[in-house]
Backbone:
């Protein structure tokens, strides 16, 4: 079972090279050089000194780049096509996942996956999460992770089932926003999200939310009312996408980098504003370079949160959740 999981999450060096971001190119060039040196060394030439030197340069370059990412660059990392998605975490961190489908009103929205699994080999948990695709066909099937109202109705239906059986809820958020099409609006997109916010606020089971990639607007918030909210180091959480903000404020999507800075959407900004409860570290170079290490960090944070929340009487959780969200948005301005 473990070998199957690892086969699904390992990424080849060539895949990373082909999907690199603009600011990653210096690192990619060093990696290619190291590969060339190793290939030459396999032919009997001793190049261990050169390889060791190049590896040190690679580590230094990665650290310099990723320790100084701008907000816009973090948005790009959050959208990296090789970044782990919800089902990657589910397969690695849980056992016996059983997906449930449909909202019992219209259809089954593939942009949100829901179900039950075993956490830590023994505890039953409810899983809710946005899911993007790995290729064009799957992305079209899953609406690029942008859920329709039936997705949110499915999510709350499964959450209410978890409430009935007393199972904690884990929500994995990764969406640019709710699906903006006419059909979605006709079927009550805003009402579906608003209903979820109200119902999640009143659930008496622990809710742990992890922003694993994009956390865009109400599309993210529709499954993100939790007792503990964590953001991966290179993920973002915002009221609007940088492009959308730039289009509204400046009528130019080219100013998305300026919007990303103004929106305070990075994990560090969110922690300073008390919007989230913690930042989950990522390996140097981002989650797509070492999924297993990222997943183990997620396991650690979620495990600790569940232990803390299970110690709180269920009837007290809604009030504590209410007070948590009530504190958000309090700020002081200079006259």
Residues:
């Amino acid at each position: 079972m473990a070998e199957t999981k690892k086969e699904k999450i390992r990424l080849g060096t060539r895949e990373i090279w082909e999907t690199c971001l603009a600011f990653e190119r210096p690192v990619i060039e060093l990696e290619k050089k190291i590969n060339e040196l190793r290939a030459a060394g396999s032919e009997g030439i001793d190049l261990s000194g050169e390889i060791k030197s190049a590896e040190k340069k690679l580590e230094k370059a990665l650290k310099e780049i990723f320790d100084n990412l701008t907000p816009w660059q973090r948005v790009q990392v959050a959208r990296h096509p090789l970044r782990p998605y919800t089902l990657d975490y589910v397969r690695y961190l849980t056992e016996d996942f059983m997906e449930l489908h449909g909202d019992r009103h219209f259809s089954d929205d593939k942009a949100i996956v829901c179900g039950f699994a075993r956490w830590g080999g023994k505890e039953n948990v409810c899983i809710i999460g946005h899911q993007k695709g790995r290729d064009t066909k799957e992305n079209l099937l899953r609406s690029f992770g942008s859920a329709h109202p039936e997705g949110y109705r499915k999510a709350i239906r499964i959450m209410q089932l978890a409430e009935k059986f007393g199972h904690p809820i884990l929500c994995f958020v990764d969406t640019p926003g709710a699906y903006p099409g006419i059909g979605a609006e006709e079927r009550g997109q805003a009402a579906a999200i608003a209903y979820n916010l109200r119902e999640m606020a009143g659930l008496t089971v622990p809710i742990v939310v992890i922003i694993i990639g994009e956390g865009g607007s109400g599309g993210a918030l529709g499954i993100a009312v939790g007792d503990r909210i964590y953001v991966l180091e290179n993920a973002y959480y915002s009221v609007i996408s940088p492009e959308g903000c730039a289009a509204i404020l400046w009528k130019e999507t080219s100013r998305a980098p300026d919007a990303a800075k103004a929106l305070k959407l990075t994990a560090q900004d969110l922690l300073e504003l008390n919007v989230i409860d913690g930042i989950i570290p990522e390996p140097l170079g981002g989650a797509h370079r070492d999924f297993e290490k990222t997943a183990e960090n997620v396991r650690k944070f979620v495990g600790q949160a569940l232990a803390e929340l299970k110690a709180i009487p269920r009837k007290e959780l809604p009030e504590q959740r209410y007070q948590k969200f009530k504190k958000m948005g309090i700020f002081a301005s200079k006259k």
